[in-house]
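Final report, closing paragraph on structural work. Over the funding period we assembled a curated collection of sequence-structure pairs, and we close with a single example.
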Amino acid sequence: MEEKNDEEELLRSVALQNAKSILRARQHGEQELIRAKEALERRTEELARSLAMMRATLESTTDGILVTDGVGKVTGFNEKFVKMWQVPHEIMDAREHRLLLEVTGRQFKDPRQVLARIDDIYASSPPESFDLLELADGRVFERFSRIQYIDERNVGRVWSFRDITDLKRSQAEERRRLKEVEVERGRLAEVFQRSPAFTAILRGPGHVFDRANDRYYQLVGDRDIIGKSVREALPELEGQGYFDILDRVFQTGEPFVGTDMCLRLRRVPGGPLEERYVESVCQPLRAPDGSVSGILAQGIDLADRKRGEDVQARLAAIVESSEDAIISKTLEGRILSWNAGAVRLFGYTPDEAVGRSITLIIPPERQDEEHEIVARIRSGARVEHFETVRVSKQGRAIDISLTISPVRDSTGRIVGASKIARDITDRKRAEEALREADRRKDEFIALLAHELRNPLAPIRNGLQVLRLAGGDASAVASARAMMERQLSHMVRLIDDLLDISRVSRNKMELRRSRVLLTDVVSSAVETVRPTIAAARHELTIALPPEPVFLDADLTRLAQVFSNLLTNSVKFTPQGGHIWLTANRRGGMVSVTVRDTGIGIPAHALAKIFDMFSQVDRSIERSTGGLGIGLALVKGLVEMHGGTVKAESAGQGQGSTFTVLLPLLESCPEPMRAVATDEGLVVAGPSRRILVVDDNRDSAMSMAMMLKLLGNEVRTAHDGIDAVETAEQFRPQVILMDVGMPRLNGYEAARRIREKPEGKAVTIIALTGWGQDGDKQRSHEAGCDGHLVKPVTLLDVVKLLTDLGAGGLGAARE
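Its predicted structure, as stored:
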């Protein structure tokens, strides 16, 4: 029993010990757990603080941060990222990078390119990636990503986005500024090189040549000076104190100005010293710390300036003496200079014009021209012969031609304009007059064709009548009379044309003599009396009772009054009244032709005596003629030393033409009458006359007229026949046609003159060619005179009469 009890006691003791051990172990475990829990809590707090610090760091950074796991799912980001990309939080909560790219990709210039970059980064899994992202709004992001590893295991990627827009812009601005600096540096270098002053840069206390321009090289005569000191390159300057000047400028930092320095330079190696008078300036060049690092030596060769001053003086004299207006102005239009020609042309003095706008002389309606001109000048273009209108101080519009050139400063920049204005008013008037003359010439040619066709039609009809009349003597006589009238009309037209041509070229020669005014008027009236009678006009003539003598060409002066009378007949309705009145006015006689005709409008009076001028050219009034009659009147009257004027009270009030001629007070010898009552002329003694013409009808008709006047006449029909007939017939007078077959009239006349019997014969060229050159050719061929076909019986008789009197005035007209 005791053993059993001891065993139980032992068991209880062991159990108790075990229980205590277990209790102690449990207590120890609990303590360990408590310590572990406390350590875990401390670790958690540290992690929380670390995470909070990391979060604070992420939120405080200026970069946008995005964290993704290994498959691209978003696991973290900061607010900067959200603001940079303007992505709603709900999108960020989606935690999937493609959804994020869909939203942010719209902000890129090329969203597909951005997506491809992201996919490439994930596909290749580079440890690090860097690139630039350009957004459509102009922003530029710098993107950087790095793979995050834990225990060498890829757990994701951290993306960093930095906005470098301002940096890029500042870099671009910096590049632009650097480029501008380079351009400016190049421009300054060009200015330095092209400067009209000699310029050099000297470095250091030894004054070593660092740079020099061409003008400096020309001054010193040596281009091999760069890198040399002034003392080494130009030793002759030492004795002239120039080195002392450079030393003083370098040491004191004070500039030097020498207005009239004499430098002796050996401009040719080994050559003589030459004196050069210069105006020199030496300025200190400073380093960034303010110390003097060199000298800028500049100056002007006074010889060049003197030459320039002489040239400028000559140019100024030319500008001032120019008849043209020469004006300079700024590009804004402000007048800078105003020469004497501008004063004469526009009326403003320099004090009134200089400083004012050029619009001073531009009419309001032409202001836009100035903008166009300035635009062309700004482009460097020259404006030449720009014709426009400007206005003077008195308000007179002036036609001018402008030549405008750009004015440049020493750097070549266009700073103004120089314009030359030439008055072309007279030229414009002359051009307008030429256009008017051309227009009137065209009208005249058309009118001449009309006037020539008028007599040709009845002449052709008369020929048909002669062909058809047979033995009807009355019809033949009537047709012949009509044809003679029309032929006379054509001859008058052609004579008027030739006469006005001679007058306009001063080729008309007057055969002056003492004539009675009554004879002149009688001759004129006889010429137009049939026309006056046909129009049933009443003509009243009133002449002074005493004789009025004139020094005149009777034929030409009669032509004046017959033209005036014919003019009145044409423009006076049938049954009108015409007056011819003459009165003495001191040493002049006034002859007036007045009518009751249609009158002359006031606007036409000033041009009524112009060539080809007509008041009325309407088809309804077709009696106007060629428009040369009054021009011929004016020319012939002025050749006689007189004047003619036209007056009219207006349409339907008639016209008055007044001719004023100088009187010849001494009494003339009586004129020898040459006309009979039948209109023929006493031709004098009979002569042997040879008529040469290849037109047989013309030769025959002329021979018949001469025979009827009592002459012995032969005919020939070509030049060779003329020479042979003249040798046999021994004529006293030969009427020689010019254009003939086998031998022309000029050559025939020469051959006849070569023979002894041909030296005394009188040879008259009878031809349709009547120009001055034709008359000269006939004279050179040996002809004594020149008659133009067709000739009248009166022309032939006058010729024979003049031959009898020992003269050939009529033939030589």
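The CA atoms of residues 518 and 546 lie 10 Å apart. The chain has 23 helices and 27 strands. We thank the funder for supporting this effort.
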